[in-house]
Amino acid sequence: MLTAMTNGARLNLSEGPEPGTELFSSHRAFKLWAYSPSHSRLLLRSSADPDPQLPDLHETTVEILFAPVDAIKVNSVYDGLTIRRATLEEADGIKAAARLDGGGHVLILESRGIRDHVVTGGICWHEGVLSPTRLSFFAGILPDQPAWPRHPLGPGYDAGLDIASAEELVHELTTDDTSSKPRGKYRTIYTVVTRVEHQTRSGAPEIEIAGAGAFLTRSEAEDFQARLKPVVADSWVEEIPIAI
User: Superkingdom, according to UniProt (predicted)?
Assistant: First the structure.
């Protein structure tokens, strides 16, 4: 069943359509953008930003998400892309080669003579304008742990491939360029947070929680935390990602 989204669609393959049906087609160039092993999700993107591998420049970004994924055979770049549901014969052959019994549904990805496939439970796509701190339309934020997702399919396992170098961090801290741009990398800093109790006339303490300092290594943060221990009610170290 095809479910409408704002500038996109979500398709539960368990409810159709028929084998061989075309699901998506675009003349735009798409790139393999991200894969999350913890949630078995695969993301393709046609970016709005200049990219030497993607000759077309568009004002919007288009993303295609496959989830959950059981098996994949994909290229890094597609110059135009059509996605259709595999025929029964194609699906049987691909599943047999991947040693899959039942499970996901087979989608065929075609582009200028290229024929790849994804075995998945569902597919959805979205087109729009990404804000600078939004790594993808499908990067979620957990209500009980609100934090900036560190990769396009976060939250989830982060392999560390998007960690910025120290040089990149220094450049961003010292550059005069204040223009807004997509933030695709991060560098973790370690912030010492303190809880201070101020005495009041009523007798009930006034509690103040504030950041006391930020450091590039945990050992430095813990060293400073130890120095604060005699003068604060409590303190702890929090890991904070800086968007680069």
Answer: Bacteria
CA distance 90 to 14: 17
**How would residue 168 be classed by pLDDT, with cut points 50, 70 and 90?**
confident
Which single residue is written with the structure tokens 């200049």? 50
* CA separation for the pair 93, 237 (Å, rounded): 53
Distance, in Å, from the CA atom of 128 to the CA atom of 124, rounded to the nearest integer, reads: 14
Give the chain's largest Cα–Cα span.
Answer: 81
C-alpha distance from residue 243 to each of 132, 149, 175, 196 (Å): 10, 10, 14, 29
The C-alpha torsion from 103 through 63 and 165 to 36, rounded to 10°, is -10
Mean pLDDT is lowest, of 39-43, 197-201, 213-217, for: 197-201
Which pLDDT score is estimated for 5?
44
The H or E element spanning position 89 is: helix 88-97
* Cβ contacts of 55 within 8 Å, gap of 6 or more: 29
- Cα separation of the two ends of the chain: 39
Kindly tell me if the per-residue pLDDT of 53 is higher than 70: no
